[in-house]
Amino acid sequence: MPTIITKIGQYQGASTKQMPAAHLTRTMQLLEKTCNELDTELANEISENPALEMAEECRCPDCKQIIPSYPCQVCLNRLNGSGPIVYVAPRSTKTYSNEEYDEYYSTDNKLKDPETLSEHILKQVAPSVSSNERKIAEHVLARLNEHGFLIDHPAEIASYLRVSLDKTKNVIEIIKRVDPIGVASQDVMECLLIQLDMLEQDGKTHPLAHNLLTKYWEQLGKRDFKTIARKCNVSVQTVRSAAQFIKRNLSPYPAQSHWNNAANATGRYFRPDVEVMKNPHKQDGPLVVQVFSAAQGWLRVSSSVRTMVNKIEDPEKKDEWSAYLERAALFVKCMRQRDNAMKRIVKLIVKRQPQFILGTDKDLIPMTRAELAIELELHESTISRAVANKTIALPNGRIIPLSTFFDRSLAIRAAVQTIIDDETTAMTDEQVAHRLVDHGYKVARRTVAKYRSMLGILPANLRARQIPRAV
Ligand SMILES: [Zn+2]
Questions:
Q1: Spacing, Cα 256 to ligand 1 middle (Å)
Q2: Is residue 410 within 8 Å of residue 361, measured between CB atoms?
Q3: Using only C-alpha atoms, what is the Rg of the chain?
Q4: Weakest mean pLDDT among 60-69, 99-108, 236-245, 328-337
Q5: Residue 335 near residue 30 (C-beta atoms within 8 A)
Q6: For the whole model, what pTM was predicted?
Q7: Domains of the chain by range and CATH?
Q8: CA torsion angle 187 193 198 204 (round to 10)
Q9: How far is the CA of 196 from the centre of ligand 1 (A)?
Q10: Quick one: residue 342, left, alpha or beta (phi over 0 = left, psi -120 to 50 = alpha)?
Q11: What is the mean pLDDT of the chain?
Q12: How much distance in Å is there from the Cα of 80 to the middle of ligand 1?
């Protein structure tokens, strides 16, 4: 069996003397992986190593006893003490409360697709339009091509929906001005002009940019700066800087950036790595946290392979099979250490942030990975690996990146939301920045603009029209 010999040969080289280092590296590799990636890793390892097997058993990772369901009631009382109840379990076996689990996964608004472009835009547009206008917005958003441009003429939409052309145009104008700016434009030129207009309102502009787009589009495409300079009676350098301004600040295809972001998010938000639930048995009881492990069953070194190896007499063959056993034992150990590290880290995070978990973004208490590292006596990079790319499902059904707990801007974003919610006349980003000082945050105007956009709130000039309705 030549393939096996090669595999074992490779493995033996790395395993015999450098065991502790190899062991640590492997654990760190596993810690960095999401549950989905871990599934793949586990399947590969099992297919390559006959000494590694998955028993169809429900066993407690701590006391190793067979249990009827997760978590192990004996270890719960013994190990958890105060704070949240945290346990490691496979993703789709019986859980702490089956009812809650079923309800959670059957509610279709919980584990849905990443936000589509239409949803993203509608969320921003909805607060400032009537229900009738909202229907127009929905139809407009259904009539976009892959670049985000409107396929139909506004008049076609108006006649299809039997609404006035003015009203239709008005809704389209609002859509064009929310993030990503320029969606629902007729073409690239219109899209760029709207973005330019929005930048100007923000105080960012280039004196030649507008002319370049409207009058010298063709020359701009050919980078014929000399002709433009002569006709505008300016230096070639000025034309070049205007062209650069356009290239850096404007995006011809507004839908593109959104699709890229959405594609990256796919998968991560369907299957969280950790889930926090309210205590199903006791109101105000400790939170219940499930850290998902990859294994659907009990991962172990095959005892039948071990027995067989003991009986092998040929020394070369015995070595080959012993290497398999050693590799299987290492993998099992590293997987358990990975799960255990995740459990300890998640337990401390949940223990520190119950207000945020049960409350709102405003309730997040700033904390750092370094603080956790000291308290858990782990290296900071271990915390980083455990947190990286993982997601956590909160009791309200939201699935968020685990790194959110370390996001210092989250509480500031919540303050921006509060300030804007309480405004009586639409406040500019500048004014919001001033008001934030009262909340203890010193933030630049541009940062406020960024956070506002992340929150899906329209700029002040567009927000103005909804205020009278709210009062
Ligand atoms: Zn146990």
A1: 50
A2: yes
A3: 29
A4: 99-108
A5: yes
A6: 0.58
A7: 2-62+273-403 (no CATH), 117-261 (1.10.10.1330), 409-470 (1.10.10)
A8: 140
A9: 63
A10: alpha
A11: 82
A12: 11
The Å distance, Cα 76 to ligand 1 centre, comes to 7
Q: For the segment 221-249, what is each residue's pLDDT rounded down to a tens digit?
A: 778 889 999 999 999 999 999 988 888 78
- 287 CA distance to ligand 1 middle (Å): 19
Strand partners of residue 292: 89
Cα of 79 vs centre of ligand 1, distance in Å, is: 9
**Kind and range of the H or E run holding 10:** helix 2-15
H-helix segments, 162-224? 165-176, 188-201, 209-215, 217-222
Look up residue 381 and give its amino acid: S
E-state strands within 50-150: 52-55, 85-90
What is the CA(369)–ligand 1 centre distance, in A?
A: 29
Q: How many angstroms separate the alpha carbon of residue 331 from the centre of ligand 1?
A: 21
Residue 77 Cα to ligand 1 middle (Å): 9
Using the mean position of ligand 1's atoms as its centre, give its distance from the Cα of residue 283 in Å. Answer: 25
Centre a 10 Å sphere on the Cβ of residue 338 and count the other Cβ atoms it contains: 24
**CA 163 to centroid of ligand 1, rounded, Å:** 66
User: Quick check: bond before 280 cis, omega within 30?
Assistant: no
Pairing of strands 288-293, 298-301: unpaired
Q: Are 72 and 65 in contact (CB under 8 A)?
A: yes
Ligand 1 center–CA 61 separation, angstroms? 7
- In the numeric block, which tokens belong to residue 468? 């009278």
